Amino acid sequence: MFSRLFQPRRYGSAEAWELHRLFPSIDLHVDTLMWAQGWRYDLTQRHRLHLPRSAWVGHIDLPRLKEIGASAQFFCISTAPFRRRGLYRLAHAQIDQLMAACYDQPQHIILMRGLNDLHRAQTKGAMAAILSIEGAHFLEGRIENLQRLVQRGVRSLGLVHFTPNEAAYPNYGLGATNDKCLTDFGRQLIDECNRLGVIVDLAHVNLCGFMEACVLSRQPVIVSHTGISSVYRHPRNISDRQLRAVADTGGVIGVMYEPRYLGGRDIGAVLRHLRRVIKVAGEEHVALGSDFDGMIVPVRGLEHVAKLPNLTDAMLKAGWSAERIGRILCQNIQRVLQDVLPSK
């Protein structure tokens, strides 16, 4: 049973909640598995933020995801950016944490290996869990490690995090450069992801590698969590040119909730970045990529996942249609899942 230690509070208007019922949300990036594996953070229990203005973790859990009616959640395999040993083993350990939640609460969470699992979750009223990897360093330079992780359920691969690896170079962090594109191993990974039905995630990838990946991929790519540099200039953010390149593949861009990259500390900052993606790439190519539990302090009004209806209210107040909001909440990434993932 879910913990009842902390009683739920309902955020947002009735109109926002109706939209969440019609368009159950999908978030492209959270780092909760890192805390579940290393700090025994129990995904199945309700948590609260003891220091909401400085909390780096505790942003999501399964009870709160269920409260807002989330249909799916990307759970990222991640670690501190500079760790270099035992990464492949660590990836399996984090998968074990998610599998434990799925075994413990099968009526509430189902690992999504293919599209049939998403349909099964929707039929049962459960949430689909989608495994992603933040950085090819977890593969330790071996293509067969990707194949083995896919067998365990991984369905999205980010090429790089904050440090260079065997596949690519970052746009921000240690070793950031725009003078180098993908490595031969990085190009091989894109081809293998396309073959295996794995989504290619270009978050953190430097400009040259990013543009090359958009050309090489035969399937839609995503940027799971980012800000937009034409709204707020930061080397971690991506340009209008990159927005168009992702849209040309049929992919989506997830806007994050991190003030350092948004240039603002309230929900309005998230809205400004969403609006820019829509203006440049089109409303068919924008999504949500919170970066919850990613050592961030989210913008005010989105301190944890149960407050997502507050963002929906902000979109309504901005005059956005239900159709546009539905695309942002879930429909755009659902299209990518249908285009890339296998049926089983």
What can you see in these coordinates?
The protein has one domain (14-340): Metal-dependent hydrolases (TIM Barrel). The longest helix is centred in the C-terminal third of the chain and has 19 residues, at 322-340. Helix 2 (32-39) packs across helix 4 (87-104) and helix 8 (207-216) runs parallel beside helix 9 (240-249). Strand 4 (127-134), helix 6 (143-151) and strand 5 (154-158) form a beta-alpha-beta unit. The chain is globular and about 50 Å long. Strands 1, 2, 3, 4, 5, 6, 7, 8 and 9 form a nine-stranded parallel sheet that branches. The chain has helices spanning 14-22, 32-39, 62-67, 87-104, 115-124, 143-151, 184-196, 207-216, 240-249, 259-262, 267-281, 308-317, 322-340, and strands at 26-30, 72-77, 109-111, 127-134, 154-158, 199-201, 221-226, 252-255, 286-288. The chain has 344 residues and is α/β, with parallel strands linked by helices.
